[in-house]
Design brief:
Distance between the termini of chain A: 13 Å
CATH topology of one domain in chain A: Rossmann fold
Largest interface: B-C, 39 and 44 residues
GO molecular function, one term (chain A): ATP binding
Chains: A alpha/beta (705), B mainly alpha (288), C mainly alpha (315)
CATH topology of the largest domain in chain C: MetI-like fold
Number of helices of chain A: 23
Structural class of chain A: alpha/beta
CATH architecture of one domain in chain A: 3-Layer(aba) Sandwich
Number of domains of chain C: 2
Radius of gyration of chain C: 24 Å
CATH superfamily of the largest domain in chain C: MetI-like
Distance between the termini of chain C: 9 Å
Largest sheet of chain A: 8 strands, mixed
Shape of chain C: globular
Keywords (chain A): ATP-binding, Cell membrane, Membrane, Nucleotide-binding, Transport
Family (chain A): Belongs to the ABC transporter superfamily.
CATH superfamily of one domain in chain A: P-loop containing nucleotide triphosphate hydrolases
Strand order of the largest sheet of chain A: 6-7-8-3-9-10-12-11
Strand content of chain A: 15-25%
Pfam family, one (chain A): oligo_HPY
CATH class of one domain in chain A: Alpha Beta
Structural class of chain C: mainly alpha
Radius of gyration of chain A: 26 Å
Main location (chain A): membrane
Number of strands of chain C: 2
Oligomer: heterotrimer
């Protein structure tokens, strides 16, 4: 399993040989009376063999840029200026009929959500064949070519699969089909719009690897649109950073990641938690504020309101994208263009970018503080919990067999401690967390809150005890009732504590202060808030019941990169002040690393490894943990030469888990590779202690590094 | 992209309950205004009928079955009675029927639809009952009720009442089912909010949206049920005029006085148009 | 597929069972003695006694119900005590007329509905779309009987182009029969067709936003191809559902339309039997109507399942 491709950063060929040349592209959306500039004066080149990353947050215009190249902007969007030169002609000037001939054959596209990108009522074979025949392939030869394509993108059993429908494929396999369709007519440029955002890390690793292999084999140029700096570091040779509809920085991946020349890029890189983070216990240098609304961009540089380098000029005039520093690195920043270094390493820069951030605490002290906390009382303990998510329909003659999404899981959360729970979607981590708070019924085992078992209690008691375990949801848009003001949402929770009138009012104010929101916002409805602000409201509501434990279900994964650090800092601060225990559920290993004292790794309803964060990340024992860590993209250039362990296949269904070790069907050290290891199929490995606090459920722990 | 507008709207209506504010916003659109005005005129005419036409609907004249004229815009019927007068009095019957039956039907339907909140089994049972009512296509239910109760206002009222309930009930149940898994409803449960409160605070306001729209659609259907049954002779019984009765009479003299039909039909269509426009406007408003 | 149908079976049977109870209960709910009610106006004691004997009114209601339903299964639909004819022959005489009307109407609903829906769902020129929208809204809002009255005035009174009263069997004399049939069928079909069109239009608008349409565009597919192969094909399910739902309305509307166009069909039979309180006829008609509606519903679901590989291949 060695990495086949180390992305070569070819020396810049002269720009005359560019495959695609985008110049001054502008795309607008008509909204009401006004016009929103989604893409504003964007220029870049893609050369043969390039992998260009276009990176940005929501609303930065990155996806609209990709669609503009294909001339696939939907109404009310409209390309209003610039040129897109491809193969010696300006695509924007072609008649639609001519453009249609270019789509798919010259430039092809891969979409974000493979679930939605395939027509549900056509077999995948027909969908590939359609792409072929549209560009002149004979019907007779098309099927053969379709089979070839399926083999090429790594779909096993192509002869059978070709006649199946999309719903019979897993997410990763669907994305392979979409790629096969894109490759059908030998395009020279592939535009991939967030191709792995909807996928799990181990599947993401498979798809990224496939793209790199195809680039190598077919000599494709690829443009990847992404929000993930890690994906950029892993895949790309060049990168364009977008913010507020403009490219603010451009250069080779090495240049941009090592020495960012735009304050936004620099601040973003500094604010991201990392797998190898040394800043544990310290607040992240978060970027204040939130990304600009494309319909209300500030007059000058759109980043100026959030920028700590901003000067007067920045607020009035838009800086041009000019060469700064090395050859080929461009930055649209007046300050950087004067030669000021904007990438001051934030660890040594205690400027409180975040108003709520406390003084940085030395690492050692925090760890000690946490350790002592761990030894105190256990506030939440889960023992042998099983949750049946099988259909509850009872037929006359049969009963559906149980499906245990959570199967004999035990874990404990102490006051003042964060337990990170990681795993891919479908591993049961959300089911587990929801059954702890009583949303999903429990099929077996016990949930003890403050030493009392809530699974065997009457309703009234449960309500009293349960209030000490509260929940923060992933999607801050869905977790607030759009018809109720913040005041009403908070009052709902506070009144359950018996608060009325002035007392309730005072407590609402205190909660708003605590989560860093202004009191005047109390009478607003949720739609008036940004995602980050809504998540603060969600946290305030959970705190209203004075919980001892918060269950945080992916609380930052729906937020923009630049907002995540703010919420992470808030959570850390609250924990310090209130001594809360956290059960932090996430698929992003870096965030978990930053926040957690202890970590539990879940696979198919079981915990396969636990230990302190340092142990699990530093010396993983279970091969699944190793693979997860290895698959997580990190935003550093140094990491790109490392060997990656890419897991094969998909997560099996919990309705029919493999015998013995549940991981054996994908395990890189199991019977797949070592057929003599029959024990893996015969015996279910127990979660046995390895080192101090670390335990792994594997017959051959610590073998894979 | 529209978040700026959203904020603007939020500021404008910050103090108002957003559910009410959204319904009201329907009447700021062109369709809403036209619909409401039209309905207003018709209701006003119906209410003021005894003042406008003090002679009552049974005043006979010497000539009969004339066409339209300035004195009698809709013409005269077979007994020389003014068709406009009869149409307006007929409108009174129709409006009294739908204003009595439809809101009650929607309310009962919603309550029954939410029965699942009390017990899963009860909810299922109610749905099966709704299946049966829906199995009786439209006027068939009316025919059954007339067969038992005899023709008249009561049979019409019950027909509209019962036939409207299943749709309202299904909408309420659908809202309940979909809201149950919404995160803000789960959040309320995790906080420990008692079930009835979750229902009234989070689920009913949501169910209301579709039911209010549906209610204005059923106003139209209610009028059609009256007219349909009266045309075949099973609805309102002459000499009492209703829009359906007038159409029935008009049909009998269609060759002698083709214009007889046009007046009552016009009123009927205007009434339907008013409610359709209001329904459209409301639908747009709640989905905004 | 079989499992899918088996899952539907209980609710279908329940609806039929409940309807049969209602139909059975009708004469017994009406005020007065059932036998007297059934005997019609001015009955003599002998008739009443005969009816009492024939229906077994002295037996328990459960037994009476069992007898009645048993009779239906054996093909014995009962007898009209007013007309002294078997219900089967009364229905047999009229079923053809209603069937002609229903079949042609349904055809119109499908053709006009799908045509209008696809046009509205793919029209790109502003005023064309507005016109189609308006036509749609108009026919959604106007009931079949008003359309019928309009057609009568237009084609039968102001212009004498088509017959508007009475009927001729299409099978006996196709050329003339069709002339009698066209207007009532059209009157019956336009409203439901507009509803179907609206369904298709909305669904197509939703489908057009789907990402698989983007994929098709990025393949280089033409607009027409996208409309039919991708957008309409995926909207077909809800089109079928819409048609299925409207069949019930067509049946119910037939009662009024038959009256307006003076067609002697089952609807007219139902109306006269209510007016003359001929319950034995009415009971069978009601149960029959529910049965037809339920069967149509079931057909819809089957077609729907066949169209969607996710249901067809599911489980």
């Amino acid at each position: 399993m060695s990495n086949p491709t180390v992305v070569a950063t070819a020396a810049r060929p002269d720009s005359g040989r560019a495959l695609l040349r985008v110049r001054n592209l502008r795309t607008e959306f008509k909204v009401g009376q006004g016009r929103v500039q989604a893409v504003n004066d964007v220029s870049f080149d893609i050369h043969p063999g390039d992998v260009l990353g276009i990176v940005g947050e929501s609303g930065s215009g990155k996806s609209v840029t990709a669609r503009s190249i294909m001339r696939m902007v939907r109404a009310p969007g409209e390309i209003v200026g610039g040129s897109v030169e491809f193969g010696g002609e300006d695509l924007l000037l072609l008649p639609e009929r001519e453009m249609r001939r270019r789509r798919g054959s010259g430039v092809a596209m891969v979409f974000q959500d493979p679930q939605a990108a395939l027509n549900p009522v056509m077999t995948i074979g027909d969908q590939i064949i359609e792409a072929l025949t549209l560009h002149g392939t004979e019907k007779r030869t098309a099927r053969g070519r379709a089979l070839e394509l399926l083999d090429q993108v790594g779909i096993p059993d192509s002869g059978v699969k070709i006649d199946q429908y999309p719903h019979q494929f897993s997410g990763g396999m669907r994305q392979r089909v979409v790629i096969a369709i894109a490759l059908a007519n030998d395009p020279v440029l592939l535009i991939a719009d967030e191709p792995t955002t909807a996928l799990d890390v181990t599947i993401q690793a498979q798809i990224l690897r496939l793209l790199l292999r195809l680039r190598e084999e077919l000599g494709l140029a690829i443009a990847i649109i992404t929000h993930d700096m890690g994906v950029v570091a892993e895949m790309c040779s060049r990168v364009a950073v977008m913010y507020g509809g403009r490219v603010v920085e451009q250069g080779t991946v090495e240049q941009v990641l090592r020495t960012p020349r735009h304050p936004y890029t620099a601040a973003l890189l500094a604010a991201m938690p990392r797998l190898d983070d040394e800043r544990l216990g310290q607040p992240l240098p978060a970027i204040p504020g939130s990304p600009p609304d494309p319909s209300a961009l500030p007059p000058g540089c759109s980043f100026a309101p959030r920028c700590r380098f901003a000067e007067d000029g920045c607020r009035h005039e838009v800086p041009a994208l000019l060469q700064v520093g090395d050859e080929d690195q461009l930055s649209a920043c007046f300050v950087a263009q004067r030669g000021v270094a904007v990438n001051v390493t934030p660890a040594f820069d205690p400027v409180a970018v975040d108003p709520v951030a406390a003084e940085p605490v030395p690492v050692e002290d925090v760890l000690v503080e946490h350790r002592t906390a761990v030894d105190t009382d256990t506030v939440l303990e889960v023992r042998d919990l099983r949750v049946d998510v099988g259909s509850r329909r009872r037929g006359l003659f049969h009963r559906d067999p149980p499906v245990y999404a959570v199967d004999s899981v035990s874990l404990a959360v102490h006051a003042g401690e964060t337990v990170g729970l990681v795993g891919e979607s479908g591993c049961g981590k959300s089911t587990l967390s929801r059954s702890i708070v009583g949303i999903t019924p429990v099929a077996g085992g016990s949930v003890e809150v403050d030493g009392e078992d809530v699974t065997s209690m009457g309703d009234e008691q449960v309500a009293r005890i349960r209030s000490s375990v509260q929940y923060v949801f992933q999607d801050p848009y869905a977790s607030l009732n759009p018809r109720r003001t913040v005041r009403q949402s908070l009052a709902e929770a506070l009144s359950l504590r018996g608060l009325r009138g002035a007392e309730l009012e005072a407590e609402s104010h205190a909660l708003m202060d605590r989560v860093g929101l202004r009191r005047e916002y109390l009478d607003r409805y949720p739609h008036a808030f940004s995602g980050g602000q809504r998540q603060r409201i969600g946290i305030a509501r959970a705190l209203a019941r004075r919980p001892k434990v918060l269950i945080l279900d992916e609380p930052v994964s729906a937020l923009d990169m630049s907002i995540q650090a703010q919420i992470i800092n808030l959570l850390e601060e609250l924990q310090r002040e209130l001594g809360l225990g956290y059960l932090f559920i996430a698929h992003d290993l870096s965030v978990v690393r930053h926040l957690s004292d202890r970590v539990a790794v879940m696979y198919l309803g079981r915990i396969v490894e636990t230990g302190t964060a340092a142990e699990v990340y530093g010396d993983p024992q279970h091969p699944y943990t190793v693979a997860l860590l290895s698959s997580s993209p990190t935003p550093t250039v140094e990491e790109r030469t490392r060997e990656q362990i890419v897991l094969q296949g998909d997560l099996p269904s919990p309705a029919n888990p493999p015998s013995g070790c549940r991981f054996r069907t994908r395990c890189p050290i199991g019977p797949l590779v070592h057929p003599e290891r029959t024990i893996c199929a015969e015996q279910d490995p127990e979660l046995l202690p390895r080192h101090n606090h670390q335990a792994a459920a594997c017959h051959f722990p610590g073998e894979l590094l | 992209m529209t978040s700026i507008e959203a904020i603007g709207r939020a500021r404008a209506t910050r103090r108002l309950n957003p559910t009410v504010a959204r319904y009201l916003s329907a009447f700021r659109t062109t369709r809403g205004i036209i619909g409401l005005t039209l309905l207003g005129i018709l209701v006003l005419a119906a209410v003021l009928a005894p003042v406008l036409f003090p002679g009552g609907y049974d005043q006979q004249g010497s000539t009969s079955l004339t066409g339209m004229s300035a004195a009698h815009p809709f013409g005269l019927d077979e007994f020389g009675r003014d068709i406009l007068t009869r149409s307006v009095y007929g409108l009174r019957i129709d409006l009294s029927l739908i204003f009595a039956a439809v809101p009650l039907s929607m309310a009962l339907g919603m309550v029954l639809g939410l029965a699942g909140a009390i017990s899963e089994r009860l909810g299922e049972a109610v749905q099966r009952l709704f299946d049966v009512v829906i199995g009786f296509p439209g006027l068939l239910l009316g025919i059954c009720l007339v067969a038992v109760l005899g023709p008249g206002w009561l049979a019409l009222f019950l027909t509209i009442l019962i036939s409207g309930m299943p749709t309202a009930g299904r909408l309420a149940r659908a809202a309940w089912l979909s809201q149950q898994s919404r995160e803000y409803v789960l959040a309320a449960r995790v906080l420990g909010v008692p079930k009835p409160k979750v229902l009234t605070r989070h689920i009913v306001p949501n169910a209301m949206d579709s039911i209010v729209v549906n209610g204005s659609v059923w106003m139209v259907i209610g009028v059609y049920i009256e007219a349909g049954l009266s045309i075949v002779g099973l609805g309102v019984q002459p000499p009492t005029p209703s829009l359906g009765v007038l159409l029935n009479n008009g049909l009998r003299f269609v060759t002698q006085a083709p214009t007889y039909l046009i007046g009552p039909a016009l009123i009927l269509v205007l009434l339907a148009l008013a409610f359709s426009l209001i329904a459209d406007a409301l639908n747009e408003a709640v989905n905004r | 597929m079989t499992r899918f149908l088996l899952r539907k079976a209980p609710s279908v049977f329940f609806v039929l069972f409940a309807s049969s109870i209602i139909a059975f209960a009708l004469p017994r709910l009406a005020p007065g003695d059932v036998a007297v009610v059934l005997a019609g106006e001015n009955p003599d004691a002998q008739t009443i006694a005969a009816i009492r004997e024939q229906l077994g009114l002295n037996k328990s209601p459960v037994l009476q119900y069992a007898d009645w339903v048993g009779g239906l299964f054996r093909g014995d639909l009962g007898e009209s005590f007013l007309l002294h004819r078997s219900v089967a022959s009364l229905i047999g005489d009229r079923v053809g007329s209603t069937l002609e009307l229903a079949v042609l109407s349904t055809l119109f609903v499908i053709v006009i509905g799908a045509g209008l829906g696809i046009m509205a769902g793919s029209a790109r020129i502003g005023w064309v779309r507005a016109l189609l929208d308006f036509t749609d809204s108009l026919f959604v809002a106007i009931p079949s009987f008003v359309v019928g009255l309009g057609l009568i005035l237009l084609f039968g009174v102001f212009n004498r182009w088509l017959p508007v009263s009475g009927e001729v069997g299409v099978l006996q004399n196709p050329a003339i029969g069709i002339q009698y049939l066209v207007l009532p069928s059209l009157a019956l079909a336009l409203g439901p067709a507009a509803v179907v069109a609206r369904f298709i239009q909305t669904e197509m608008a939703t489908m057009r936003k789907a990402e698989f349409v983007d994929l098709a565009v990025s393949k280089g597919a033409s607009r027409r191809r996208i409309t039919f192969r991708h957008v309409f094909r995926n909207s077909l399910g809800s089109a079928v559902v819409a048609v299925g739902l409207q069949v019930g309305h067509v049946l119910a509307g037939a009662v009024v339309i038959e009256a307006i166009f003076a067609r002697n069909g089952l609807g007219q039979l139902a109306v006269t039997s209510v007016q003359s309180r001929d319950f034995t006829v009415l009971q069978v008609l009601i149960l029959g109507a529910v049965f037809v509606a339920v069967v149509c519903q079931l057909f819809t679901e089957i077609i729907l399942a066949a169209l969607d590989p996710r249901i067809r291949l599911g489980e």
